[in-house]
Design brief:
The complex is a heterodimer of chains A (about 220) and B (about 375).
Chain A (H helix, E strand, L loop, with lengths): L23 H6 L4 H27 L10 H25 L1 H7 L6 H12 L9 H33 L2 E3 L9 E3 L14 H26 L1
Antiparallel strand pairs in A: 1-2
Chain B lengths: L27 H23 L1 H25 L8 H12 L7 H15 L12 H12 L19 H10 L8 H7 L6 H18 L7 H6 L11 H13 L6 H17 L13 H5 L4 H8 L10 H21 L6 H19 L13
Helix pairs in contact in B: 1-2, 1-3, 1-10, 2-3, 2-4, 3-4, 3-5, 4-5, 5-15, 10-13, 11-13, 11-14, 14-15
The chains are: A mainly alpha (about 220), B mainly alpha (about 375).
Chain lengths: ~220, ~375
């Protein structure tokens, strides 16, 4: 496959949360428990990929104006992202009501973050649609989605471990789903579970990302 | 603070430094160490009343604070432990803690104050929040139960700070009449025996001639023989330290006075309302001597790094602090309102600076003014 690479660098180099500072709202809000971060990330990746795929299919059928940054492009993006988000929300609410409650208002907000990330992934993809083009587009979207997930998981691990002294995951078999971190769980620093703690972790994550970039830049120079 | 960089041998012709722009012979190190010394009497009083546990809390807070400063400044490549600001932070954290607190709380509060609140923002002079208060509020949010583990004075009497006891008394719905001390007395708050002797003597020999009498507890509150934070209970010793700082012009007397007066006016006018006692019944003298109000007003609201630059700005801030403290203390649930109020004040200090900056007259565009 020629042309621009499939990789968006979304996982590290262009991590949406830590480097590009988008999607901060869920990154600060639903990272109090690891499980919430996992569901949020899963929802976003799912919606992002489905939206991207549908848009590429629309482009392949050459709808008038699609794929040229025209208003119809935006409208279809809005429509598709909202549809898939609503579906995800309904399915989650039906089959995993507790997790759905954990996400709260931030589940519908997946649509917003999906649109932002989609615009980042879809940059420059205005060439005629073809199998290679679809692969590239999906690759970029999944890179950004994975980067989003990585940031959320890192933040939620720090916040939940220090702020509640636990790590909440899925219950599997005899494992109840919650790991208690010895020592900290007796007197956790609850301040980290509050919204301010989320912003604090976010700030340090962004700072760490900049530090890594600076060190790498110095190595290259 | 205009601190010469160690690499610079002679003072530079033009020193560019972050606010506050203090000029004169006093270096920031001397300033900080003198503040630390002025805090010592009140801290020593806490150790005298509560014994070894208080000393341990103070030592832990100061030790971790200095250690955190050392570690972070090593990472910076510029050792700043000797400027004394970490000592002041550690001491203040310890003084705001109750003596019975588990030792990890002062340790975490000091580490948070130095590493997150101060050093993450670039070190002394660049922190927008008072490090000690940042650490203490972090502890208040995180371990609110531990933050009310007071100890009885010299091993006897109640282990509940008067302010908290008062809150409990009013929560019971049996407010009673009379002053706040009378309410506490009616709920069986155990004042010290010395207090009993002094108050009885004054009532019998002095005030009876005037037909008046003092309630029990006045002596305890004035001298500071009550449960509370290690360094916040002794108002006279805090005032002695503050007086020295005011005489040496390290702090401006206008700031704490405005703060306290605004608080008193607000508290006296409206303070009785949430307790169901009507207007003008806030019991302001009791409030003035309880909690960390005096410590906060003289030693933390006056922090030159986190307060506005001009006197006018400082007065505006001090007045808002008084009102904020009143609201947080009477309607809030976290602590005694002082730490949170001063932190909120720190947050708006740059905004106040923006509106109180002296204007340069007849300056055209492009001129700093």
């Amino acid at each position: 496959m020629n042309g621009p690479s499939t990789r968006s660098g979304g996982l590290f180099r262009n991590n949406p949360v830590a480097v590009m500072l988008v999607g901060l709202c869920p990154a600060a809000a639903v990272t109090g428990r690891v499980i919430d971060a996992l569901w949020m990330s899963a929802g976003l990746i799912l919606v992002l990929l489905l939206t991207r795929l549908s848009l590429e299919i629309l482009k392949a059928f050459s709808f008038p104006g699609s794929g040229t940054g025209h208003m119809t492009d935006w409208l279809s993006l809005l429509f598709l992202a909202s549809c898939f988000t609503a579906s995800f929300e309904l399915v989650l609410g039906a089959f995993a009501p507790d997790e759905s409650a954990g996400l709260g208002i931030y589940a519908p907000l997946i649509a917003v973050n999906c649109i932002v990330l989609d615009r980042l992934a879809g940059r420059g993809s205005q060439e005629p649609a073809g199998p290679g083009e679809i692969g590239r587009s999906l690759g970029q979207a999944s890179g950004l989605g994975a980067g989003f997930a990585l940031s959320l998981i890192v933040i939620s691990l720090i916040r939940e471990t220090l702020g509640s002294g636990t790590i909440t995951l899925f219950p599997i078999g005899s494992f109840g789903g919650t790991i208690a971190v010895g020592g900290i769980s007796l007197a956790p620093a609850r301040a980290l579970v509050y919204a301010g703690g989320g912003l604090l972790c976010l700030g340090y994550l962004a700072g760490a990302a900049r530090l890594v970039r600076r060190v790498k830049g110095a190595e290259r120079a | 603070m205009a601190e010469p960089h160690p690499d610079v041998a002679s003072p530079p012709a033009l020193a560019v430094s972050p606010a506050p722009h203090l000029r004169g012979l006093v270096s920031s190190a001397r300033l900080n160490w003198s503040v630390a010394c002025c805090l010592l009497p009140a801290a020593a009083w806490g150790v005298f009343l509560f014994g070894l546990p208080a000393l341990r809390v103070l030592g832990m807070a100061a030790g971790v604070s200095l250690l955190a400063e050392l570690i972070t400044s090593l990472a910076w490549g510029r050792i700043t432990v000797r400027d004394g600001s970490a000592m002041v932070t550690g001491l203040l954290v310890g003084m705001l803690m109750p003596p019975g607190v588990p030792l990890y709380v002062p340790a975490a509060a000091s580490a948070f104050g130095i590493m997150v609140v101060k050093q993450s923002f670039g070190g002394l002079g660049r922190n927008w929040m008072n490090p000690a208060l940042g650490g203490v509020v972090f502890a208040l949010f995180s371990w609110s139960d531990s933050m009310s583990r007071w100890l009885p004075v010299r091993g006897a009497g109640s282990a509940v700070a008067p302010l908290a006891a008062l809150r409990d008394a009013f929560a019971g719905g049996k407010a009673g009449s009379g002053g706040l001390l009378a309410v506490l007395g009616a709920h069986g708050y155990p004042w010290s025996a010395t207090d009993g002797r002094v108050v009885t003597w004054v009532n019998d020999h002095v005030l009876s001639l005037l037909g008046a009498s003092l309630p029990r507890g006045v002596f305890d509150m004035l001298v500071g023989t009550v449960p509370g934070g290690i360094g916040e209970i002794s108002v006279p010793l805090l005032l002695i330290g503050a007086a020295y700082l005011i005489v040496r012009r390290v702090i401006r007397w206008q700031v704490p006075v405005t703060y306290l007066v605004t608080f008193c006016v607000a508290a006296q006018l409206f303070g009785g309302l949430p307790m169901g006692r009507g207007w003008l019944a806030g019991g302001v003298l009791f409030q003035l001597f309880s909690g960390s109000l005096v410590l906060g007003a003289f030693f933390m609201a006056t922090d030159p790094v986190t307060s506005p630059l001009t006197l006018r700005g400082n007065l505006i801030l001090a007045a808002s602090l008084g009102v904020l403290t009143f609201f947080l203390r009477y309607f809030g649930t976290l602590g005694d309102g002082v730490p949170l109020a001063i932190l909120l004040g720190n947050a708006v200090a740059p905004l106040i600076d923006r509106f109180t900056q002296p204007r340069v007259r007849s300056a055209g565009k492009g001129v700093i003014g």
